Amino acid sequence: MEYTSIRLLVEKFDECFVFYHKTLGLTPLFGKCGEVYALFDIGNNVGLELFNTDLMASEVNTADLAIPNNNRDKSLWGFKDDNLDETYLRLKAKGVTFLNAPHDIASWGMRVVHFRDPEGNLIEINKNLA
Fold first, then answer.
1. What is the residue range of 89's domain?
2. pTM for this model (two decimals)
3. Same domain for 54 and 88?
């Protein structure tokens, strides 16, 4: 078995496509606004996929279930960036609303900052303190 991708099941496909492409600067390998699937290059032969949640729900027989809201986060998308503070300022200038400012967590050995994508997925940018 080989790990190949992360797939985010989204309602707001176009908004998420623009966020990951234009705001975060990821390169789309497949798909565009107005479609239901996109694949972005995130390095190391792994892709970040966006897929319409209704289509997946139909496939796995959960179309009659509600989309969970107001729950604690069950996942986090982590990105390493040695220029974390500069990236924070660049994304803030693009309108990203951060949950916190870049800060050191000595017990983790990392400097981190957190924000959400248009679907509410928790994202962390981090860099090693050492």
1. 76-130
2. 0.88
3. no
